[in-house]
Amino acid sequence: MLDDLRAACRRDPALYGTRVVEAVLYPGLWALWSHRLAHRLHRWRVPLLPRALSQLTRLLTGVEIHPGATIGRRLFIDHGAGVVIGETARVGDDVTMYHRVTLGGRGWWRDADGGRRHPTVGDRVVLGVGATVLGPLHIGDDAEIGAHCLVLADVPAGARLRAPAAVARARTPSRPRRRAGTRPGALT
Fold first, then answer.
1. Averaged pLDDT, 93-112
2. I need a surface site. Which of 21, 35, 61, 118 has the fewest CB within 10 A?
3. Domain limits at 154?
4. CA dihedral 71, 44, 86, 147 (to 10 degrees)
5. Tell me, what's the pLDDT at 13?
6. Contact 142, 96 (CB under 8 A)
7. Quick one: how far is CA 56 from the chain centroid?
8. pTM of the model as a whole
9. Which residues have CB under 8 Å from 105's CB, separation 6+?
10. What total number of domains does the chain contain?
């Protein structure tokens, strides 16, 4: 728990000076701590309780982490709202995740052999706002997935992905034309 608190303080520029104490109010931290308990119960094959705990945590924090997901050390979930981490997902150490990130599967079916349906995220990866990573793919160490990226294939270590962005030039409103021979201010 202390590692998780330190990670939040190191990675969130809003936490400085006496404001560091605010880290204990972060929903991402509470979701992570709750997941660690639910994951342990899940591994012990306790029925119903791990899933109930994850759903209660989702209700309170807006972060849904399936009890079967494997989470590494020092995960920092900034803001937390809308984060979803699926059952067979694996998240490495020192990962930073922003709100609305999804680590999900590509469909509703279950593999017959109980195989992986969710992504594996390497160490020191940054997942930007609204990033969606689907399927049993691998994101390499030190990769950065930009805001609103949809990832459907493996990402090599150190890669930087950005969603396409287009900037439209602002249109200036056209001024009404004046007919020749009319006085200024008179529109036709």
1. 87
2. 21
3. 2-161
4. -20
5. 83
6. no
7. 19
8. 0.82
9. 86, 88, 117, 118, 134, 135
10. 1
